[in-house]
Design a protein that fits this description.
It is a single chain. The chain is of the alpha+beta class. The chain has one domain (about 1-235): Sandwich (Jelly Rolls), CATH 2.60.120.10. It has seven helices and 13 strands. The chain has helices at about 15-20, 25-35, 125-150, 150-170, 185-190, 195-205, 225-230, and strands at about 1-5, 40-45, 45-50, 60-65, 65-70, 80-85, 90, 105, 110-115, 175-180, 210-215, 215-220, 235. The protein has a four-stranded antiparallel sheet with strand order 2-9-4-7. Strands 3-8-5-6 form a four-stranded antiparallel sheet. Strands 10-12-11 form a three-stranded antiparallel sheet, with no helix packed on it. β5 (about 65-70) and β6 form a beta hairpin. α4 crosses α7 and α5 crosses α6. It is globular, with a radius of gyration of 18 Å.
Length: about 240
């Protein structure tokens, strides 16, 4: 998958920077997004704020923080389906009365704002939303392949590369370095592993010189080498 536009101007708000990277936004579209960001709503850390099967009342944009789509089985086992990062959309749907297909859990404190409805004079906003939906599908299908066909080491590499790629679109990752406020238990629920297996895999990556992880700060010192370990198919943004 590829996208055809890059930001036309420097944008300091990570969410708007990501949406601008997905499609070229007109000044009026950027102005409406900036106005929307001035009406934030905060979700408390470690709280479910969307419940699977319940109505979705409003389309919103993640301004800051980390959340995740989850599915919890009756016996308490949890699968993290994907993460919601700054610039990702919630509840943007063509249906008139959409319901949540998965629950959404706030990993950190999460701040969102309303997602402005595209208008004729908002050049690029509808396209940005459409590309965002396509990239979300891309990452979900990537998660299916990751869980179904990759071993633990490959899963970790592929997932870390995806997170780096997604944060970089919002200007939150640079040179293989980014913040990752996740416990090993949450990573385990993401990759279909045990916490013990996650710990061993992270240690193996450290030993191989491919990962530094300290106090929630990640450094991937050799992105090219990591790409060579997996069949990496990033979402490409071209100017």
């Amino acid at each position: 998958m590829s996208t055809s536009a890059a930001p036309t101007l420097f944008e300091s708000i990570p969410a708007i920077r990501r949406l601008s990277a997905l499609a070229a936004l007109s000044p009026s579209a950027v102005a409406r997004l900036r106005a929307a960001s001035a009406a934030p709503r905060t979700m408390r850390q470690r709280r479910e704020f969307v419940t699977e099967g319940e109505p979705v009342h409003e389309a919103r944009i993640v301004l800051s923080g980390w959340a995740c789509h989850t599915h919890v089985l009756r016996d308490g086992r949890r699968q993290v389906l994907d993460f919601l990062l700054p610039g990702d959309l919630l509840g943007v749907c063509a249906q008139s009365n959409p319901v949540a297909s998965a629950s959404i859990f706030a990993v950190t404190e999460v701040v969102t704002c309303p997602a402005p409805l595209p208008r004729a004079d908002d050049g690029g906003l509808a396209e940005s939303y459409a590309v965002s939906a396509a990239t979300s599908e891309h990452y979900l299908l990537r998660q299916v392949t990751r869980l179904g066909r990759l071993n633990a080491y490959e899963r970790m590499v592929d997932w870390l590369m995806e997170i780096h790629e997604r944060l970089a679109l919002a200007g939150l990752a640079d040179g293989g370095q980014f913040s990752m406020p996740l416990t090993q238990e949450l990573i385990a629920d993401t990759l279909g592993l045990t916490s013990v297996h996650v710990n061993r895999t992270l240690q193996a990556l450290r030993s191989d010189g491919l990962l530094t992880l300290r106090s929630g700060q990640v450094l991937l010192p050799d992105l090219c080498r990591l790409e060579g370990l997996i069949e990496n198919r990033p979402v490409r943004v071209t100017g």
